[in-house]
Structures are given as structure tokens and as C-alpha cells.
Amino acid sequence: MAIYKAVIPAAGLGTRFLPATKSTPKEMLPVVDKPAIQYVVEEAVAAGLDDILMITGRSKRSLADHFDAAPELEASLEAKGDTERLALVRASTDLADVHFVRQRQPKGLGHAVLCAKRHVGDEAFAVLLGDDLIDRRDPILPAMVALQERTGGSVIALLEVDPDQIHLYGCAAAEPLEGGGSDEVRITGLVEKPDTADAPSNLAIIGRYVLNPAVFRVLEDTAPGRGGEIQLTDALATLAGMPVEQGGGVYGVIFRGRRYDTGDRLDYLKAVVRIAADRPDLGPEFRRWLAEYVPSLPA
């Protein structure tokens, strides 16, 4: 069965960006001139996933507003003949079929995914975390979807990181996938944010997943783990040891492209600079300004 549903957890409080996120969801913080969440939806749609479920929380109504029509604004732009901005406003409305459900309690990523059970049903689906922006020139979802369809299991995106940084991520133990591509692996074990000395590898889990619906049954039986939350990594570790006929098996695709981390203030600023510098409309002038400004900065 073709995969066309995607789940985007967006219930976090965004405390690292306070006070900006006191009244504005972190997902709505602009990356140049689009909110971060729109980049994520555009990535899903480009991979053929046009049925989007966002898992939200309180004070997140602006997410729904952004992907809804804005009749008064559209009428004003149309009356002015501002077709360029009118197209930009309508683009987010027409992107996909976007649905919303609330995660009433902050019980972790695993619980957020479990909130999608009724909408997803008995189908494989993707999960995209909004903190990870994948450059549209380096898509990974199509390869992950193809691997899920080929194996029937669940697929996670992996990134090789400095071993000293692995404690910041979920970590995968992996082996080459027989008959697979050079960047495809079979997962033999998973651990959430291990101590550096105990990490099985330097393969970090980043925020893209394509999951067999068996993950819902496993999540329902997964006890709270690290941080007292229901960890998706723990459920995937269980799936990795289950038979294929029961929806088990976990595989990975190693990502080697451009990725922007918007979950951290410093990395968010870097993402804005990198994306702006690559824009054909802003990049040339912005790069010239950077070339003049950066040498004047103290070391």
C-alpha cells in the first residue's frame, strides 16, 4: 500500500526560545520568510505525503490558522493586484490536507505518535520532527519510503556525528543490510541519549521516521523511559526484535545531505543564515554583505 500520511508532532512548549515562544509556537518562528513548520510540510508533500496530521497542544491555534484560508488578507491583496504575495499566502493553504489533534499531556514523543493512531489506522506512515529541516535539494524521505515498502518494517533516518555528541541523540547499533544500498542498514539495537562510553555507534537518530503501524501496539505497552516520558526510541527497539510477520524489523538510511537544526538558538541562527545565503532572490546581496561584515568581527 502506498504511503501518503505523515504525522508532525508540534506540542512542545519551546522553552529554549523564551520569551519569543511565550505567545508564539516555536514551529511558527520564521526561517527567513516562512515559518519553520511550513518547510516540514513542504518536505512531506514533495515525498508524496499529502495527508498531514499535526499533534499540537494548547496555545497552538496559529498553526491551524497558517494552513487555513485567510479571506480578508487574500481579498486585500487581490484588490491591490499584488498577485505575488497572494500566491505566497495561498501556497500554505493549498499545500496539503492538514488535520490537527491535541496531545493533552506532555508525555513524550512516543505518546505524541500514539495520538495519531485513530487517524493513521492500519497503514504505514511517516513522522517528521519540526526541529530538523532537511534541505529540499537533499531529500531523504523518498529513500525511506522505498525501503519501508521493500522491507515492510520501520525505517529511521541516521546521521553520523562526532562520538562526543552522541549523548544528545537516540543512538543506533546497525549492520549492513543484505542486498541494500550503501547507505541502508539493519538496526540491531537502539538506546536513547546514551553516555558516550556506552554508545553502540556514532549513528544518531534524526527526526525522520517511516513506521509500520505495529508501532502503535508497541507504544501502548511501552513504559515511560528516560525523562519519565514514553520514548519512541524504546518502542523502535522493541520492534527491532520482533518478527517481520508481526510488523517488526527496523532499518535505517544514513543521511549525508544538508540539514538545519532549528531546535537550538545558535543552530537556528545558523539555519537562517545558510538558507538566506542560498536563496536566489536574497542570496547574492546577502552574501556580499556577509563578506564585508564577517571579517570585521572580533575572533
From TrEMBL:
Pfam families: NTP_transferase
UniProt KW Transferase keyword: yes
EC number: 2.7.7.9
Keyword Transmembrane recorded: no
Catalytic activity entry: alpha-D-glucose 1-phosphate + UTP + H(+) = UDP-alpha-D-glucose + diphosphate
Top enzyme category: transferase
Protein name (record): UTP--glucose-1-phosphate uridylyltransferase
Taxonomic lineage from the root: Bacteria, Bacillati, Actinomycetota, Actinomycetes, Micrococcales
A GO MF label: UTP:glucose-1-phosphate uridylyltransferase activity
Keywords recorded for this protein, A-Z: Nucleotidyltransferase, Transferase
Gene from which the chain derives: galU
InterPro entries assigned: GalU_uridylyltTrfase_bac/arc, NTP_transferase_dom, Nucleotide-diphossugar_trans
Protein family according to the UniProt entry: Belongs to the UDPGP type 2 family.
Residue ranges constituting the Nucleotidyl transferase domain according to the UniProt record: 5-275
